[in-house]
Amino acid sequence: MQQLGEGAIDNPESGWQPLRDRLQKDLYAAGGILPIQMRVVLRQLSSLRSLTVKAYENEGGVLGVAAQYVAEVADSVAKYASTDPTTVRGVLRELVNPADRSKTRDISLDLLANRCANTLDSTKFGRMLEQLKTEGMLRDRADESGARRWRLDHDFLALAIEELDRRENDIHAFSTNMLKHYEL
To answer: Is 115 domain-assigned?
Structure first.
């Protein structure tokens, strides 16, 4: 067991220095660091089991850390809006462009509300959107007619939502296959 003072912060060569270098490489991979990527990754570093490249890779790198961020925000917003995380994730999924899953899209408040009408009343729905905006996940604007439109704060979040969906679908498929195996 490690003694206090033997961790990555006190002994940078044991983990933090290589992790910092790896983060810099990964975040610069697209030619520059986006502020949203930096905010998400730095916020999620505390969720790593240790500040090492191995822990970071086990989480799935930048995209995995971002997917974990989306999951945590969805959970906290669900509590705030008195709904379930599945509903919040469904709203986030609606804002991912179906033609290009790496991009966000604008959706009118009315259309978004109609797609969630079965699960949330208008008060909870409004609280949920405002809290997602406060958390930096969404932004809104008025279109030419003055109608309110919503979108993800950045395309990077669309990628994170897609990664979260992929992970959840993989877990679902795995558990379904395990159940089939044990039913035989």
So the answer is: yes
Proportion of the chain in helix, strand, coil states, percent, rounded to 5: 60, 10, 30
Distance of CA 134 to the CA centre of its chain: 15
pLDDT in tens, 126-183: 999 999 999 999 999 998 999 899 999 999 999 999 999 998 876 655 555 555 556 5
- Structural domain of 41: 12-173
Q: Count how many domains the chain has.
A: 1
d(CA 6, CA 12): 9
For the four alpha carbons of 140, 143, 146 and 149, in that order, the dihedral sign comes to negative
- In this structure, is residue 5 part of a structural domain? no
The enclosing domain of 167 has a CATH number of 1.10.10.10
Domain contains 1: no
pLDDT band at 6 (very low <50, low <70, confident <90, very high): very low
Amino acid at 76: S
Query: If pLDDT is split at 50, 70 and 90, which confidence band does 3 have?
Result: very low
Instruction: Give yes or no for a contact between 150 and 109, defined as CB atoms under 8 angstroms apart.
Output: yes
3 in a domain, yes or no?
A: no
Q: Model pTM?
A: 0.82
Strand 148-152 relative to strand 138-142, pairing: antiparallel
